[in-house]
Specification:
Layout (H helix, E strand, L loop, with lengths): L3 E5 L4 H17 L3 E5 L2 H5 L9 H24 L1 H17 L4 H5 L1 H11 L16 H15 L7 E4 L7 E4 L9 H15 L19
Parallel strand pairs: 1-2
Antiparallel strand pairs: 1-3, 3-4
Helix pairs in contact: 1-8, 3-4, 4-6
Length: 212
């Protein structure tokens, strides 16, 4: 059983930074992490507000293309392969600012990402396979069942399946903690997440994301 579950959308910059904090602590503490899906496209598909622009819709569709391929990788190659593909996607989407390229040719872009992750490039064809959407929607609903619906990405679950399981939309951090700073933050968030009755700790001001 995993020590932590991370529900991610690959296009979310905040989820990406949180995920790199998770992988930092994973290496330092030898934790097992399960990578799971939450779709910004599905969360926002019925929105009609002015802020949900064409650019937002395109970005969230890019996440769904990537999720479909991640789901087939999960089926064929397992959780570690999903993590490797997410790393390739995050480096391209956020580190290299290449996210718009996937909307131009989802299959070609995903084939490049699969190759970067050491996975078979033929899986890229699943970017257009809507049969994956049911599972992705189930994962999204599972994430919300743990936190409530008034949140976004990332959602993380400490100690999944155990009596003291705890989930949060968080931490939203602007830079990736490393070394001792990463483990100190982990310990603090784990205590908060698994404390009975704790529901919210929040402030609105944040710095721009730093992917370094």
């Amino acid at each position: 059983m995993a020590d932590l579950e991370v529900f991610f959308d690959p296009v979310c910059p905040w989820a990406w930074i949180t995920s790199r904090w998770v992988t930092e602590v994973q290496q330092l503490r030898n934790y097992e992490v399960e990578w799971r899906f939450i779709s910004l496209k599905m969360i926002n598909q019925d929105r009609a507000e002015d802020w949900y622009t064409t650019e937002y819709r395109a970005a969230h569709l890019a996440g769904l293309y990537a999720h479909r391929v991640c789901d087939e990788v999960r089926v064929q190659h397992g959780n570690l392969a999903v993590g490797a593909l997410y790393t390739a996607l995050g480096n391209a989407f956020h580190g290299q600012q290449r996210r718009p390229e996937i909307n131009l040719d989802p299959v070609a872009f995903m084939a490049e990402m699969l190759a970067a992750a050491g996975l078979p490039t033929a899986v890229a064809a699943h970017a257009h396979d809507e049969s994956h959407d049911g599972y992705i929607e189930q994962e999204t609903e599972l994430a919300f069942s743990r936190t409530g619906r008034d949140v976004g990405t990332p959602i993380i679950t400490f100690r999944p399946g155990r009596a003291d399981e705890g989930s949060f939309f968080a931490p939203v951090i602007s830079a990736i903690p490393r070394g001792d700073a990463a483990t100190r933050l982990w310990d603090a968030i784990e205590i908060i997440a698994t404390s009975s009755g704790m529901s919210e700790l929040k402030r609105s001001n944040r710095a721009s994301p730093d992917f370094g």
